């Protein structure tokens, strides 16, 4: 059996490290089989497309929303995915993200993440809003690129000491497929070349306006047959030595906020973008955000930058409280608002943070008014079976037909998610008994070992009533209500 490894995060997020961030990646991994909404040219749901099975109406509705987002006609509005647990709400949001492509920022926030001891709730929301707004910065750079054929520093007597020598300039030769060029550059570049340990025969990249030097690798003309060093060989660059390069950087507003809160010197794009706003700061404040907005608007007017409104997905939205909801209503009005997708599995329920306001999905009416609501329906047994099949394929597990039937039965009895969760432990049991394929017995054994929510709750109820009937102190059981 193949031990299933977590898929690398796909698309939406590429950060790592922090626990919240890891949770986000796990979330993505359990949806790794979802590659899109699986719609036809005309927007109809294929029976099985891009890993998505069933839930046709919701998928088609999401397809319309994707079109609206592409046409930039969805800002200030929100999509609400409502339906029972395990009916593919998160999967739909992931599919929307895939449809929009990696260039459109997609930010996932689980509503309970706003309750942090260190940061204000609205701060968490503000940060996530800004992470969902992309900025594409276009820059034309003049660069020199080629294999280094010559490196001759020219020394001159040091005007300050009279004894020592300094480098007055450096002459380098660069070669590409097209031709060669000799350049006379200032001593700063020579220093950078030395720092990067660049020698003749390396392919280098020099930015004309900043003097930044990068070693691309060793020219593959120097590659020998036996090579134990870990060298990267690169082909001789094509085109001329002197090129104009159109560089496109994708950032988001939060990157700019953070960079400006901790400005550093340097020549790379983040340092440059980190000096938009003058003055030293250590914290992202509303004032700083406003200043960043202003500068960005200026760049947009000059045609240097373009704003790419992305998507903010807030899962389990009923966990937000009234304070957060009023923040959201206001934030959605701002001209720089991203597209927002909510998901919830609650029906009519109390709005958190209020004593007596009940509302559909626990969302206040004024916000609900801005939402397009899409329902997800519970799955039929056949659909559950298909999803299991797809998922087993992705995880590289062999499941027999009968075992698949049994898993599907379990799924329709409790939930799709429970059935999916039985897959990996069943595979381990199969492996322990020296089998490659999961059999119905493995499924049964896993089912006996691990309870689903309903059986678990029922078990506790029985236990509580038993310990009650045995009187106070009986068995020393702690009462569970
Ligand atoms: N229609 C579907 N086709 C394929 N996989 C699905 C489908 N619906 C749900 N899944 C998968 O089932 C699991 C549970 O779905 P999820 O989207 O997390 O449910 P929800 O967010 O509604 O509680 C996930 O691993 C998801 O990728
Ligand atoms: Mg979910």
Question: Can you walk through the features of this model?
Answer:
This protein has 481 residues and is α/β, with parallel strands linked by helices. The chain folds into three domains: 19-132 and 310-375, 3-Layer(aba) Sandwich (Rossmann fold), CATH 3.40.50; 134-288, OB fold (Dihydrolipoamide Acetyltransferase, E2P); 381-450, Helicase, Ruva Protein, domain 3. It has helices at residues 19-29, 56-70, 89-100, 121-131, 187-195, 253-261, 269-273, 286-302, 322-333, 365-368, 381-395, 401-413, 416-432, 440-449, 453-469; strands spanning 48-49, 52-53, 78-82, 106-110, 133-157, 165-175, 180-185, 202-207, 213-219, 233-234, 242-252, 305-309, 311-315, 339-344, 348-350, 358-360, 371-375, 398-399, 437-438. A hairpin with a 5-residue loop joins strand 8 (202-207) and strand 9. The chain binds adenosine-5'-diphosphate (ADP) and magnesium ion. Magnesium ion (MG) binds at residues 89-90, 315, 343.
Describe the global form: globular
Looking at the overall shape, the CATH architecture of the largest domain is 3-Layer(aba) Sandwich
**H/I helix tally:** 15
Task: Calculate Rg over CA atoms.
Answer: 29 Å
Present as ligands are: adenosine-5'-diphosphate, magnesium ion
CATH class of the largest domain equals Alpha Beta
N- to C-terminal distance: 43 Å
Sheet bearing the most strands, described? Answer: 8 strands, mixed
CATH topology of the largest domain: Rossmann fold
Give me the count of strands: 19
Number of domains: 3
> Roughly what fraction of the amino acids lie in strands?
15-25%
CATH homologous superfamily annotation of the largest domain: P-loop containing nucleotide triphosphate hydrolases
Helix content: 25-40%
Average pLDDT value? 85
